[in-house]
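Still learning. Any example?
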Amino acid sequence: MVIPVNPKLNEYAIQVKQDIYDAGFCCEVDVDAGDTMNKKIRNAQLAQFNFILVVGEKESTNKTVNVRTRDNIVHGERAVVDVIKRFDFLKQEKLLKSEEDF
């Protein structure tokens, strides 16, 4: 799940979602203007998304995402390309605790 910090970043969030989708992974983006960022993160956790990618101004400028897991563990800022590579690795290795080992 990709979550933009504010509506101005919806376009970047959609681009990140498309990059991940094009790499062969299911991905959604939450561009609902009616919810706050914290509400969007909470909704993604309740929906059991393994990884929640938050994008803000800094991430948009650096072409990165801030990675969280559904357990609310923040893994920090990572390049989108690196996140996709890590998803590929996790897919190939089939790790049971992929959220912790990210």
